[in-house]
What does this fold into?
Amino acid sequence: MPLKLCLVGAGHMGRLHAGKLAGMKDVSLTCVVDVNRPQADEVAKGHGTRGSDRIEDALADGVQGAVIASTTGTHFAIVREFLKRGVHVFVEKPIAADPEEAEALIELAREKSVLLQVGHIERFSPAFRRACRFVRAPLSMEACRIGVFTGRSTDIDVVHDLMIHDIDLALSLNKTAIRRISAEGIPVLTKKTDVAHARIEFADGCVANLSASRVSKTRERSFTIVEKGRYVSVDLAVGRMFFVESDKNGKKRTTTYRAPRPDPLRDELRAFIRAVKENGRAVVDGEEALRALVTADNISAEIERRLSKKMSGHG
It folds into this structure.
């Protein structure tokens, strides 16, 4: 029997999710929900299902899982409603608007024994996954994530919109505690930070330097890892990885990889569906998403602190 899934959110990401889900033979997309009913109807009609502006309609279909692609501020109330009913949930990043909401959702999912997976999509990049095979003990990491202004996700700053992807990747490679965060950023086209730079220092001495901008004229998604005698470079935009290492005799070995047809969005949804069917674990669970959210919050707070200091004339 196909797995019954509903979709909440018919915006840009919701449309992408709808397309992937509708193309899966083992999935039945039962309903598309959005507060904008005409938008929900349009997306639903395009994939042979029905639209609604009420979550209750989706729940009435006896759904087993829900994909949440609504705005960040709505995540908590919507995800909670499905978890309360024992429905497995995939929610786009960030998991919630603040850590307290995230913790409540994690606890509820645990109480109801249901899956809570968070859409940190870069974990499903074939190039990044291949790079992980070579990573042992990072000394430094560097990420650059820039893109043109689209007008989407302006309810959150660039740290929670874009940089959080690389925060999650860095935290997945280094599990030690964060010792210090320094950051700076500025609003450009919105009232929130649109350009940000952050430095994360880990307890083991590793450092991650992250840059993000949503007002650039070009697009880049790069992530590099440096270890003793090793260097790994990942182009997340095209799915390419380059690895070079030197042995104790100075002999170099290089490896290159190019993913044939990367589709990380489909892969993360497939992972969610597989985990639901097999009673498995989420690749990116609530706890990991919470750590990324807390780190993003701390970076944003540091940016605000520095901006306030500049505005007051003290730096």
